[in-house]
Amino acid sequence: MRNRFNRGVATLVGLALAGTGLATVNAAPAVASSYDCPAGYFCGWTGESANGSMWKTNKSVADLGSWDNKIRSYVNRTTSIACVYEDKDYVPWGGYWAQEPNSPGELNGDPVATTSSIKFVRTERECSRPAYPSWVSETSPTALGFGDMNGDRKADVITRDEAGRLWFSPGDDTGRLIGTAGWNGMSALTRHGDFSRDGREDLIAREASTGKLWLYPGTGTGSLGTRELIGSGGWNGMSQITAFGDLTGDGRSDLIAIEKATGKLWLYPGTSTGTLGTRKLIGTGGWNTMNALVGMGDVDGGGRPDLYAREASTGKLWLYPGTSTGTLGTRKLVGTGGWNTMADFLSVGDFSGDGRPDLATVTNDRYVIDGSAGHLGWLVTYQGRATGALAAGQRADGEWWGLNGFC
Ligand SMILES: [Ca+2]
Ligand SMILES: [Ca+2]
Ligand SMILES: [Ca+2]
Ligand SMILES: [Ca+2]
Q1: Is the pLDDT assigned to residue 324 strictly greater than 80?
Q2: How many other CB atoms sit within 10 Å of the CB of residue 254?
Q3: What does DSSP assign to residue 63?
Q4: pTM (2 decimals)?
Q5: For the chain, percent helix, then strand, then coil, each to nearest 5?
Q6: Ligand nearest to the CA of 270
Q7: Which UniProt keywords apply (predicted)?
Q8: Lower Cβ count inside 10 Å, N or C end of the chain?
Q9: What residues have their beta carbon closer than 5 A to ion ligand 2?
Q10: Three-class DSSP category at 338
Q11: CA of 261 to the centre of ligand 2 (A)
């Protein structure tokens, strides 16, 4: 039940009537063509081949009025996704089609006989729901020092959408735009605690085109301030860049990452200036066998933050406890298998309200429900236990699809 709606069956005819002899078959007086639709508009026709009367709009229309249920073919020449609904007022449950922008001459033919409203959006999921996911968290009895951008002891989620925007979700099922564009140029997003030394949680991102590492200081409200360069290059040689919390014990959050070429795990300590200090080896090799690192916070009560790592070949989830010497101790198995069905891990602290860090995951298309795979976009939550283990997963929400990453 990922999508409760039925998507209409629109067919992309493509280049219909364009420069072919067909254009003359339905000769005068009213031969039309999808080329008649001006750039920047969505156009519909009473005929099935961009013929008959043409209607056009460059704004969302909740009620097509005299054109209700009249459109038999259409083209989207805007730069937005057009949600073409079978019901008025953008009601998605009766069915809709999310139409990407068309090239000149393309045409979407029948059956589209019941079109009643049209809305322009940036991402497909906005045809049926908000751009951001539904996130609800309980107030934690203690401030864990991470997972909380606005300091209200409720775990927050930051979401990147398919249009490259960033959304802040404070845990009350709302969302707020905090990044207007360009975030799809980042190939890593991570946050865990305070790097800039103002007590507010920050976000760290790797720029794909340059291999630079940027710090976006949290303002304490969920928004982000002016970015600062904390890694001048070379970060494309690293994988699983993960803000981790204070492993070194100096009160400053640290960063860890795997060196792709060697499989070594490195710790980059936070410093008093908000930059990263000289790196320290904390894993001598073999870490390329891990395809997810999760900075969980102190889940075993030992006083230092701990690491979860997913083993690619087995789908197992391992706990590596932080030690008082700033290293990782002997690992323990916390998940016996099946964790490769997760696309994303969110370590945002305690969202269940018992003071212990929890784990949220978002499934990929290998996730199985009732014996069948293909259930991507489920939020599955795992409550942390005192030993660093996890309670059984709970399917919390099935509508985390059509997004482009979380931290
Ligand atoms: Ca919060
Ligand atoms: Ca900060
Ligand atoms: Ca530290
Ligand atoms: Ca610990």
Answers
A1: yes
A2: 30
A3: -
A4: 0.90
A5: 5, 35, 55
A6: 3
A7: Signal
A8: N
A9: 194, 196, 198, 200, 202, 217
A10: coil
A11: 31
Omega of the bond leading into 141 within 30 degrees of 0 (cis): no
Ligand having the closest approach to the CA of 150:
1
How far is ligand 3, taken at its centre, from the CA of residue 328, in Å?
14
Cα separation, 95 vs 87, in Å, equals 8
Q: Which residue has the tokens 């002891």?
A: 153
Q: Hey, which residues does 190 pair with through a beta bridge?
A: 204
Per-residue tokens: 39: 């750039």
CA 104-181-2 angle, to 5 degrees, is 75
DSSP 8-state code for residue 374: -
Q: How confident is the model at residue 15 (pLDDT cuts 50, 70, 90)?
A: very low
* Nearest bound ligand to the CA of residue 172: 1
- Residue 32: its pLDDT value, please? 63
* Centre of ligand 3 from the C-alpha of residue 396, in Å: 34
Q: What is the rounded CA–CA span in Å between residue 368 and residue 106?
A: 38
Distance 329 CA to ligand 4 centre (A): 10
Ramachandran quadrant class, 296 (left: phi over 0; alpha: psi -120 to 50; beta: rest): alpha
197 CA from centroid of ligand 2 (Å): 5
Q: How far is the CA of 307 from the centre of ligand 3 (A)?
A: 15
- How many angstroms separate the alpha carbon of residue 154 from the centre of ligand 1? 4
Q: How many residues does the chain have?
A: 407
Q: Identify the CA nearest to 305 among candidates 100, 144, 137.
A: 144
Unique residue bearing structure tokens 């305070």: 194
pLDDT in tens, 245-283: 999 999 999 999 999 999 999 999 999 888 999 999 999
User: What is the phi/psi pair of residue 120, to 5°?
Assistant: -100, 130
Give the distance (Å) from ligand 2 centre to CA of residue 212.
19
Strand 403-406 versus strand 306-311 pairing type: unpaired
Tell how far the Cα of 162 is from the centroid of ligand 1, in angstroms: 24
